[in-house]
Queue: 3 jobs
Job 1
Amino acid sequence: MKVLVTGATGYLAGHCVAELLTHGYSVRGTVRDLRTADIAHLSALAAQTDGELDFVEADLTDDSGWSEAVEGCVYVWHVASPFPTSVPKDEDEVIRPAVEGTLRVLRAARSSGSVRRVVLTSSGAAVHHGHDDDRIFTENDWTDLSKAGPYAKSKTLAEKAAWDFARESGLELVVLNPSTVLGPILNADVNTSVELIRRIMQGTLPFLPRISWDIVDVRDLARLHRLAMETPSAAGNRYIAAGQFMWAHEMASVLADHYRPRGYRIGTGTMPYWLMWVVSRFDPSSRLALTFWGRMDRSSAAKAEKELGWTSRPPSEAVLDTAASMIELGVVPRR
């Protein structure tokens, strides 16, 4: 059976391709431009597993290519979505491609005649943003759009549009809402979610902002996609993918214990708010991080554990494996 993975060269999507190939599925990946796409690491994965892998050009902002992308596919994993490294000047830069792109994929899947189910990668950002209480969030919770930033809005509106489409069309849909994703990178293209690890390892963050996350390992998240695809009773459900909770300085301490003896200068102090505010005036990524200052957004993955038999490895393992892969691929200098 062939599975379509959108945005195949992305961080999570690459692990999704690997998960499918190692479990005997044929995979088709979408890329925006085959002439410039970095697909070498994915082709190597296919060769190692003796799996079938092909690519097709399709862009979330354009209708062309999507009917060809879904042709002959039994399942679709819609993973691709804009993930900004800074707060955009116009929120529609993020919201429009997320919502319109999701609907393009779903329309193509419905019209294909072959697609049985779509697994949509949403986000924890569609669950817990805009709430000030200390509850443990579940799949029953939704982000408050009146208090959410552009990225959280984009994920929430895209997921809501997907559920509306599924109800109206009868398309079988499962949605996953992952927390912060860490774990080994597959190529040297560092995405937003692992950027903090790179900066800690390079020694450019002597002090860490007071921000925190529930962490899910990218390999476990890819496995959850497969479980959501293969489990008949998963249809029509949301599933949170979240592991244990960690503050940024705790992540740095895990890295320091392991890598300081090897010569890496890793800071573990906590940056005061006023200093973070000053830095954010000049650093767009710090400006984005400032919006998460002091928050403790914690979510429960009990539903995925109970209904899909899913488990998540310890966050310290995800943190260390992220760093190890960065050293291996030359993103962080070897000491």
Job 2
Amino acid sequence: MTTAGRQQTADVKVRDAERARDELRDALRAAGVTLPSLGLDAASCVGSFPLALIDLGRCNVATALALTVALRSSTGERKGAER
């Protein structure tokens, strides 16, 4: 893989992590939860093969997305039960 190709892959990973962080923040907010330091772990977003970790006590993108889905499902069930 060329340097440009690695950089593109790194950029995609960081964008995916940013998107996951934003979705998680929104889902947490909908559930009434705020994590003030929710963000990207800067050290994990650099280098040729970045991991792009979400910093909330650290988890990977897949875990953040799974937590987002669970929170949204839980919030939907709770709202449905209140009707």
Job 3
Amino acid sequence: MRFARGGSSLLFPPGDVRALADSLMELLDDPAARRRMGEAGREIVSGHDIRRTLAAFEALHLRAACHPRP
């Protein structure tokens, strides 16, 4: 089973249904891996607070408005 960077998701070749099924079966048989993936996912999501996200979008829009591209 291969994990994406951060460990919150599985990696498998695009379109390879068998690899997906094999990874899911391994995950079903591995409670510790599921727990680690859940923890990693919660860690990633914690950085996406709505106030921080809106502030980032506002900064991008202000930057674009002040420095239009030719």
